[in-house]
């Protein structure tokens, strides 16, 4: 994998919103706080588990490790999409944690995001959005997945992670970014 440029990644940001859903629906409902369970995911969320919980992944191989326990999206993406006519709120794209102030997509693999309670999420990769996003808002898939000038696929629908340490995450919490030892690996889809 190519190296990741991390010089511009801020060392902190904040939680704008948290969300969960006990069923496999596309969007999640926002709540005041969520509890992260080490090695499992978000308590009460349909995607929590040691092995894959996303339906398409379960159909392919239900024994795969769950590298998608927690989904994070930067609020700046919502801001950008609003300017193109997509009125999105936290949780609409199925994310558990909406952040502000961190360029999530620029983080290297294995970055740890730490919250005041001691909860920690280890970043595993990029979310790979599917056609359900167009069922939610027609044309939205094309707004979050595109090709750059060299034809390389760009996924901008957030990142995925696993819970490295349990604890509560609340709206307004600061987030500390802890980069892994180098050399860094750029995020790829998980």
From TrEMBL:
Domain MOSC residue range list: 29-178
Molecular function, one GO term: catalytic activity
Coiled coil spans: none
Protein name, as recorded: MOSC domain-containing protein YiiM
Organism lineage string: Bacteria, Bacillati, Actinomycetota, Actinomycetes, Geodermatophilales
């Amino acid at each position: 994998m190519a190296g990741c440029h991390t010089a511009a990644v801020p060392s902190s940001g904040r939680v704008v919103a948290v969300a969960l859903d006990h069923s496999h629906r596309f969007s999640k409902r926002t709540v005041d706080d969520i509890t992260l369970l080490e090695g499992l995911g978000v308590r009460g969320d349909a995607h929590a588990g040691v092995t894959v919980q996303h339906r398409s992944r379960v159909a392919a191989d239900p024994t795969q490790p769950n590298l998608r326990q927690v989904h994070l999206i930067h609020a700046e993406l919502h801001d950008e999409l609003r300017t193109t006519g997509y009125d999105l709120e936290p949780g609409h794209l199925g994310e558990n944690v909406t952040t502000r102030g961190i360029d999530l997509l620029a983080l290297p693999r294995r970055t740890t995001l730490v919250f005041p309670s001691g909860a920690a999420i280890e970043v595993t990769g990029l979310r790979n959005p599917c056609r359900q996003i167009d069922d939610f808002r027609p044309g939205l898939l094309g707004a979050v997945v595109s090709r750059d000038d060299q034809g390389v696929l760009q996924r901008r629908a957030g990142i995925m992670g696993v819970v490295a340490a349990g604890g509560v995450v609340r709206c307004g919490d600061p987030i500390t970014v802890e980069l892994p030892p180098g050399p860094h690996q750029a995020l790829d889809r998980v």
